[in-house]
Amino acid sequence: MDNQEITCPHCRSDIPYGANVCRGCRAEIKYGTPKFFIWLGLLLPVVVGYFIARFLHLTIGAGETIAWVVWGIVTLAGWYGCIRVCKRLFRNHVSFTRQTNR
């Protein structure tokens, strides 16, 4: 997005892409994946991997070592997948946060 401008939703100022602060209203500009999705992408594979490993251990009778290996593989694969999905979904995501006067 070289030489492109974005418009601030608060003051309607045109700002060059890559700026950190709006020139018109001083709103903070952030690019990329929101923090909520980063945390979700870190925690969800850990939990899913745990339940898959527990299922294998308790119902199929897989050994504890196998269950831990499966948990690790599912967690790492989930992290990798979440990173790829978030980069694709939020590649053009721009958020503006304006501070309120207190």
TrEMBL record:
Superkingdom of source: Bacteria
Statement: the UniProt record of this protein carries the keyword Transmembrane helix: yes
TM region(s), chain numbering: 36-53, 65-83
Keywords annotated in UniProt: Membrane, Transmembrane, Transmembrane helix
Presence of keyword Transmembrane helix: yes
Annotated protein name in UniProt: Uncharacterized protein
Source organism: Superficieibacter electus
